[in-house]
Amino acid sequence: MAERARWPLRLAAVCYVGVLVALPVGLVLWRTGEQGVGAFFSAIGSADAVHAYRLTLIVAGCAVVLNTVFGVGAALLLARYRFAGKALLNAIIDLPVSVSPIVVGLALILVYGARTGWLGPLLSDVGFQVIFATPGMVLATAFVSLPLVVREVLPVLQQVGDEQEQAARSLGANTLTRLRRVTLPTIKWALAYGVVLSLARCLGEFGAVRVVSGNVIGKTQTVTLLVDEQAEQFEPGYYQLSVVLLAVAAVCIVVISLVKPKENR
Amino acid sequence: MTKARSRRGMAATVLAVAAVAALGLTSCSSGSGSASGSTDSKKVSIVAYSVPKPAYDALEAGFQGTSQGKGVTFEASYGASGDQSRAVINGQHADYVAFSIEPDLTRLTPDLVDSDWNSGPTKGLVSDSVVVIAVRKGNPKHITGWDDLIKPGIKIVTPDPGSSGSAKWNLLAAYAHGLIDGGNDEGAQAYLKKLAANIISKPESGNKATQTFVNGAGDVLLSYENEAIAARQQGQALDYVVPADSVLIQNPAAVTKSAPPAAKDFLDFVESEQGQRIFASKGYRPVLPGLDPGTVAGANDPEQPYPTVKTLTTIAQLGGWPAVDKKYFDKSSGIITKILNGS
Amino acid sequence: MSALSSAPARRLARLGRGHEAGPAGGNRLTAGPAAGLGVAVLWLSLLVLLPLAAVLSKAAGGGLSELWSSVTDREAVSAIKLTLGCALGVSAVNAVMGTLIAWVLVRDEFAGKRLLEVVIDIPFALPTIVAGLVLLTLYGPRSPLGVNWYATRPGILVALLFVTLPFVVRSVQPVLMSLQPAVEEAARSLGAGRLTTFRRIVLPAIAPAIASGAALAFGRAMGEYGSVVLISGQIQYKTEVASSYVYKQIQDDDLAGAAATATVLLAISLLVILLLRTFARWGARHG
Asked: Is C190 exposed, middle or buried (0-12, 13-18, 19+ CB in 10 A)?
């Protein structure tokens, strides 16, 4: 790029990103630092916070596992087989990205609400509560992150082709062995990338979970919900917990950049 | 990366994922089990409106210090009074419910709460307060009472009566002032119309309204005395004016039918002298007559925290809650609802 | 890359790269994969299809006149107009700035470029409520900059710009990287200025990527909640965005009204995204 063009463009990009992202993030780190080390540890170690960590890990973990299993399965189906409705399946998988998290929560309540949902009363009769309990939060989180694993794994499967799998089959390997020894190693970096993206998204989900959780402190409150409650009740601790979430996001970004599929590096 | 290391990495990932899955699935099932019915008799689930969290945090600690409360654990959810009430009906688990206004509690009878919930010594009420006008520190707009609120250019923040019980008290107080000033319903409605024209924001709960005001929206916040005091106790920069006439806020609480005995013990504690003192320290007027509230930080005058309001209208004087709720707040025909919606 | 390391397998692997797999479109389903498809469809139904169908059903459930009155409610219209305007504005800004940033990332080299890459990804990985708090801290009542954008439109815009930053950048970047410099060099050797080269050679090549990035940004901005809800103050008719309004309706137990607004929101989002994506695919084919 010619010398004269470089500086204004570079400056514009750096200033825009700096002011938009780095400045507010830096300010929060500063404010948290101002409040001191003691306040930091008491906030991140409080009973409510510890409950929230556990719940967040459980909800995000379940959602990531569900999305990974679905993601690999759907990618294989889309890449290797032909069947009626293939384009529809593709389109539906992309749908969650365009749905507002609040609408996700509303949609789940309409189906799984214990009193008036389509399936809710049925489930409630067998003692299984979805809304205002953990399963609802898992569903909400899984919904919003549904496409992430599929969209990373599918292109790799399509690009690589199935010659190796055919070769393995002709050598006598059964489906499971083919999956384990041929397919999964092929997609492992794309899969890891998708899983970490999914994890970051699930750990940080707020709007959809807020609608379905009932916000019971220490029970159905994830870390994001706890931060919101503390900010609303003017209770100290939300800066410190925000910094924890920031740190987790930063770790995810670093891992993602290390694992990124080679073409994009 | 060598093939051996990459295979180990792969195995490690699979193991980690499987471990999280196992942890998740076991916790999921146990979580959903306990959500639908607490088998732990020493655990009390509180579902309350948004404003009294500081008070209930202190009440929980106070109760746990008594012999009856030893070993009892709590979990709590706070939100707009009406919304929380509807959530309990829709399946949110609750042992002890505390709302801002009576209709939000009677909605739960007779299915979830016994119909004789208000037959006790305090008639089911656990805390009192009055409607006050919160202003910026130093009262820059020189607000002294309700009449200043209808001046042009004054921006009012008050919660939304559709979701918040706090909002109903506020608007009833405004209407009551209109009745006193204007002499009759026409006068009151005229006053309320002018007030409604100045409302710029109707957040969903009493607490959210405070948050909105503190963050810089509006000149004036219609609120409870206890909410203003609690905000000041938490270091927020606002002042409040106790107007010459206001409405007596009375908050009910009850235990649900499926609640463990510990919840009833907690309710008794809340209604006892010790519980009422804790409420008083957090900005509430005690329901027990003659109880000295002591020094309350955050009040306009900490030594005399709860001044007598010259003209205090009670909900009984206005006709009792069922009649008031229908006449003023019915979703389509309520007088106040219609004024707020601009018709 | 695969467990089969013999030479014939490697030859096969090299052949396989870059084509669509196997017989045109894929193999026929056998029992195992068919069962897998069944499970996948069941999961999608329980998670996505049934819930979304419930929203549409609830919206239309009270009859068309009910639906119409919900949708034309003053507050609903105001919220949707505000959200649509902000989303379009933010997508437009992103189309420009995102392309610029992608250009700098691909074509420029300087110390700290890796840091810039990482910072750009922060809005994607950060929980929305934390983003909201972070922005409220900088632009809210206790701002060190002396502004207070709480409950104002600029506040909403800056929140949306924050969360949509990575979309166009990450969409355009790979396309820019794969562009052959030879064509641009040829154009310049023929006397074309830098701007002309960009306009006539680079821009058509990256336009589809800009469009699909903008589509993602638009969809995100239309539905965004966590980062906007704090700084917007949700002042009715002024700074209440559509997602806040739907949330309010849910809380007030007006599920039919919430479903009606949600349906309108979904329809608008899907329409614009479809338009932009069709343009992107058309552009890619005729590039």
From this structure: exposed
Nearest CA in chain C to B89: C253
B29-60 pLDDT tens trace? 444 333 434 456 789 999 999 889 999 999 99
Cβ–Cβ below 8 Å for B24 and A61: yes
pLDDT tens-digit series, residues A22-39? 999 999 999 899 988 998
CA B278, B274, B45 angle in degrees (round to 5)?
70
Tell me if chain C has a CB within 8 Å of the CB of A48.
no
Question: Inter-chain contact C235–B216, Cβ cutoff 8 Å?
Answer: no
Q: Cβ C141–B216 below 8 Å, yes or no?
A: yes
Q: What residue has token string 């989303």?
A: C87
Tokens representing B144 are 């002294």
Phi first, then psi: what are they for C157, rounded to 5°?
Answer: -60, -45
Q: State the residue for tokens 């932009």.
A: C276
Q: In angstroms, what separates the C-alpha of C213 from chain B's closest C-alpha?
A: 31
Q: Model-level pTM greater than 0.90?
A: no
pLDDT, tens digit, 9 for 90 and up, residues B265-309: 999 999 999 999 999 999 999 998 888 888 888 898 888 899 999
Q: Would you say residue C9 has pLDDT above 70?
A: no
SS3 content of chain C, % helix, strand, coil (to 5): 75, 0, 20
- Flag whether C278 is in a domain: yes
A101-127 confidence digits (pLDDT tens): 999 999 999 999 888 889 988 988 888
**Minimal CA separation from A13 to chain B, in Å:** 32
Contact check, Cβ <8 Å, B75/A114: no
Choose among B186, B174, B79, B82: nearest CA to B133. Answer: B174
Reported as a pLDDT band with limits 50, 70 and 90, residue C65 is confident
Hey, where are the domains in chain A?
Answer: 58-214
Nearest CA in chain C to A8: C104
Amino acid, single-letter form, for residue B105: L
- Three-state DSSP class for C143? coil
Distance in angstroms (rounded) separating the CA atoms of residues C285 and C287:
6
For C23: left if phi > 0, alpha if psi spans -120 to 50, otherwise beta; the answer is beta
Distance (Å) from the C-alpha of residue A51 to the closest C-alpha of chain C?
18
Dump pLDDT digits (tens) for B112-136. Answer: 999 999 998 899 999 999 999 999 9
CATH topology of domain A58-214: MetI-like fold (1.10.3720)
Considering only CB atoms, A9 lies closest to which of C9, C51, C103, namely C103
Looking at the DSSP assignment, which residues form a beta bridge with residue C27?
Answer: A81
CATH number for the domain that contains residue C266: 1.10.3720.10
Number of cross-chain residue pairs from A and C with Cβ atoms under 8 Å apart? 305
Asked if residue C83 is part of any domain, the answer here is yes
- Please state the length of chain C: 287
Contact B35 A134 (CB under 8 A): yes
- Residue B133 in 3-state DSSP? strand
A246, closest residue in chain C (CA to CA): C126
Residue C30 lies in a domain: no
Residues 229-248 (A) with a CB less than 8 A from some CB of C:
231, 238-239, 242, 245-246
Number of domains in chain C: 1
- 3-state DSSP call for residue B250? strand
